[in-house]
Records
---
Amino acid sequence: MTNFERYKIIRMRYAIFVLFFFISILLRAQTLEEADKLYADKKYVAAAEMYEQLYRFDNAAESYLMQISLLEKDKKNKKAPVIIDSLRPLIKKVENLARMVSRCENIQIIDSILVDKTHFLSAYHLVEEAGTLEQTTGSVTYENQLKDRRFFGKKAEKTLFRLYTQVKMQDGWSEEKPLNIPVDSLADDNYPFVMSDGLTIYYASNGNESIGGYDLFISRYNVDNDTYLAPRQLGMPFNSPYNDYMLAIDELNGVGYFATDRFQPEDKVIIYTFIPNEEPVFVEDENFAVLAGRAKINSIRDTWRPNANYQALLQKIGNDIEKGNQQAVTKDFTFVINDKIVYYTLADFEDEGAKQTFLRSRDLKKQILTLENQLDAQRRNFAEGDANRKRTLKLSILENESRLENLYDTFKKMEIEVRNREIKELRTKS
C-alpha cells in the first residue's frame, strides 16, 4: 500500500468520525428538545397527583383541565391529542372521587390493625353464626354457618378472578358454579362474603368503574331467575384510590371488618373494625378538610360518637387478645422510602440530615399549596375581569406559574435527597 493510499484511508476515517460526531450532537439536541417538550406536557399533572394524595379531588380536576388547556394551545405538539385523550379519564375519575368525598358515610371505626397480607384474616373475629373465612391463593373462601355452601374467588378467563359457589352433597362438594353477577369482562371479582340471609353478598372488584384497585361492592340474589342484581359500589370511607376488599359483618356482635392497603407498604394491609349502619348515614359537615379526613380515615377517633366507650365491645369480639406481630396503626404522615419501607413519624428517620430535609420539604409543600390556591383565585378573577383587570393580572399569573414550576422541581429534588440519604444510612447500619 502506497503512502497516498494510506493518506486517503486516514482522510476517509476522519470524515466518518466527524460525520458521526455531528449526528450524535443532532440526536442529543433532539432528545433534549423532546425531554423539554415532555416536561411542558406534564406541567400540571404533578400538581394533580399531589392533590389526589391530599384528597383534594376538585383541585386535581382543575389541574388536569389546565394541562389540557395548555396542550390545546400548543399547535406544534403532535403528541398533544394523544396526551389529552389520556387525561380525560383521569378527570372523570377525580370528579367521581370528589362526589364520593362529599357523601362520605358516617361509620364508627373502633379499631385498626396493621397486618401482613399473607395472613390478614387473623384480624377478623367472626362468631360461628357469621360463617368462616379461609385464606387461599389470591382469594378467600367463605363458608356459611350450616357449612353446606361456600363462595370463593378463582382464576378464570386467562388470569382474571371470578366468583364461584359450591353446595355440599352427600358425597362431597358439587361442581363449581359461577355466580351470575353482572361483571366487567376485563376485571377481577374476588373476596366474597355472604350475609346470614343467604341473599346479600359483599365482594371486591377492580372493574365496574372502580376508583382505584379493588373496590367494595354489594349485590343481592334474585331467587326468581337465579341471578344477582346489578352491583352497587360502596362509598367512602370503605373505598379509596387504593385496594379495598374483604368486607365481612358479624351481625351477632354488630361489627364489621374490611381490609385496605391505602398508604401502606406493599406487603401490609390495615384491617378496620367498624359498626355498620342499618341505613347509610352521611357525614354532615361543610368543611371539606373534615370530609376528606373522614374519607381517608385520618383518625379513627374522629369517627367516634361523643363520650362513647368501645372497650367492652372490643373485648367481647376478642380484639383485646395479644396481637403478637401485629402492629397498631399510628402515623403523622406517610412517606415512602422504597418498596419495602414506609415512614409514619419523625422518629422513624435514622439520618438526621434526611429528617431535617424532610421537614423543609413539608414546609415547601405548604408553600406550593398556598401558591396553587392563590393562582386559582387569580385565574378566576382573570376570567371574570374586564380588559384592564386582565392586563393587571396577566403578569402576576405568569410570574406565579414560573415560581410554582420552580417549587415543584425543588420539592421533587428534596424528596429524592431524603430517600437517598436515608437508604444510605440504613445500608450503613445493616
Note: The chain has three domains: 3-101, 105-327, 346-429.
---
Amino acid sequence: MKIPAAIILTVLFLKGSAVLAQDPVLSQFFANRSYLNPAFTGLEDGLQLSATARNQWFAADRGYSFVTTTAEWQEPLWNSGFGVAISHAQEGLAPLESSSAGLLYSYVIPGARSNWHFGLKYSLNQKRLDWSKLTFSDQLDPVFGNIYASAVAPGRESILFHDFAFGVVRRWDSLTRSNRKNKYSWRSHIGLAVHHLASLFGDGPDESFLKTGSEVPARITLHGGTIIPLEFLQGVGRRITLSPNFRFETQGPNPLNPGKSLTLFSGGLYVIFLNQFTVGTMYHSRAPLAGAKHTNAMSISAGFSSQPQGKKKDNFYLGLSVDVNTSGLGIRSNNIYELNLRYAFRGMKTFGERGQGSGRKRPRGKSLDCPHFAY
C-alpha cells in the first residue's frame, strides 16, 4: 500500500495559495557564494567550479535532497564576473522534482580599500510531479487499504517559469597595525540579495500544479562576515584566522514583514588553521535570539583547502557539515548533511588577457582582488 503520508503532500498542493514555500538554504553558505548572492559571481581569479550536495530528513519518507553546481569566471578587463548555475531538488515519495538552469553576471566598482559588487541572475525553472504515486483519502478503505479510485482530477505534471534575482555586496579592508614593523587587515563584507524579484514588485510566476495562481514568494537575504587574522599571538602570525558570519532570510508574500513570513537566522564562527584546515559551528533559528521555542539546529562543519605556492596554481576547498536538530523533527529525522567542493583553475587566461595582443590593455587598479580565505 502507498504511504498515506502522500496525502499530506497532496493537501499542500491543493492549498497552494495558503502555504508558504521556501527555497533551499545551505548550512555552509560561505562555501557556495554565488548561490547566496549573485553579486559574488566571479569573485576569484580564473575559472571556479563549485558543487553542493545536501540531504535532509532522509528518515522522514526520503526527506529532501538538493544538488547545485556553478561555473564562474572573472573578467578583470571588464570589471565583471560571469557564471552558469544548475540545480536539482527532490522531495517526498511522489516525488516532487524541481530543476533550475541560470545565468549570472556581476559588476564591480573598485575603490582604494573597498569594492562594490552588483549581481544579476536569470533562471529557467521546472517542477515535475508524478500524480500516479499520490494517495488520496477517498482511495482508502479502513480495512483493506488503498482499493478505490480517486475522484480528484490530476493537475499539470510539469510547470515551467522564468525567474530573476539581484544582489549587492560591499567588501572592505580595515587596516590595523600590531606594532611598528607588522600590520594586518580585517577583510569584511555586507550584502543584500533579493530572489524572485517579480513576486516582490507584482505578480510572480505561478508555481501551482492546479493553476491556482500561487506565486513563488520573494526571498530577501541579508548577510555579512569578517576575516580576523590573529597576529597578536606571538609566534603564530597569520596561522590562525577567525571568521564570524551571519545570514538572515525572510520569504513570503510580504517578506518585508518578518512576522508574516518564513524567517531564518544563521550565525556562527569558523576557525582556519595554517590557512588550510577549517572547523566551525553555526546556529540556525527562526529568530536571532536563542530559545527553546525557535531553535532549529546546530551545525558543525570541517573543511580542507589546498594552498599551492604561486597565484596561478590551482586550488580547491572541500567541506562537510552536519546539522543536528535540537527541536522540531529531532534526531529521528536523520539530521541534515551537506558536502561542498570548490575547485579553482587559476592558470586559465581570461578573454581580456587573450585580447591583449590586439592592442587592448588591462586597466590599472581594476582587478577584482580576493583573499586566500572565504571572502
Note: The chain is about 5% helix and 50% strand.
---
Amino acid sequence: MTPLTLAIDVGGTKTDIAWVSDVGDITAIARIDTAAAGPNLLEEIVNAVPRSKIDDIGVIGVGCGGPMSPGGEQVSPLNIPAWRNFPLRAALIQHFGCDVNVENDAKALALAEGRFGAARGISNYVAMVVSTGVGGGVVVDGRLLDGSTGNAGHIGHIVVNPGGAPCGCGVRGCLEAEASGTAITRMTGRPASEAEISVRRRTGEMVGRAIASTASLLDVESFFIAGSVALGYGADFFGSARATARQFAGLSFVSDIRVEPSGLGDRGPILGAACVAWRSLKP
C-alpha cells in the first residue's frame, strides 16, 4: 500500500486534517474549532485520525501559526493562547510514530502556491494569508526563505499605522492589528464577514502598505493572497490593496506590483501542509 500523507493545518479559528495525494487530491478527515478545543486541541487532532489508518501514514506535514522555533519543535501561535512553547512536532511523533514536519502556515502556503497555484513558474513571489491573523511566505530565486530561526516572512508584523491598534506581539500598528479578522471584529464590534465596504477597502489599504515595503526590500513584484478576509472581501479588498501598493512603491523595479488572489482558494492551507511533508522527503 502506498504510504499516505497526512496534512494538518492549524489555524486560529479552525484546524483542518486531511489526506493529500501527490497530485493535490484532498480527502477531508475532520475540521476542529480551534478556539473551542482550547488546551485539548492536540487530543482532538489525534482522535480525528482513524486508528485503522495510522499504520499507513508515511509522513505528516503541519502548517501552524507562529512564531516557532526551528523545525517547529516548539510553537507559540499568537492566536492560540493555549499553545505557548508547545512541543508540537515531538507530541505528534509520539502519537503517530512517523516522520512529522512542521512549518509556519503562511510559508507552507507559499510552497503550495508554487507547486499547485498561481505562482507556478515564478521564482520570486510572496504568498500571504489575511484571515484570523496575517502571515506571509517569501520565495526568492526559487527558494523559500527561512531566516535565522525559521520565522522569515512575518509580514503581519510590519508596522503600517504607527501608534495604531495594539498587536499581540506587543507593538502598535502592525498589519495584523489593523487588517486581520480578529482586528476587524475588535474595531467594528461585528464579525469580519459583515464589514462595510469602507472597512473592506481600508483593510486592503493596510495590506497594500505592507506589500509596498516588502516589494522594495526584497525586489519581489508578485503577491498572492489567501485567507477568509482577503478572499471574502474580494474586489473591494484587492482593488484597494493593489492601488495602495503601487502608490507607496516608488522604485522603478517594483513599478508593476502584482497583487492577486491565491490560485488555490480555500485549498491552499491544507495543500501547504502537505507540501511541508513532501519537502522533507529525499528524492
Note: The chain has a mean pLDDT of 95.
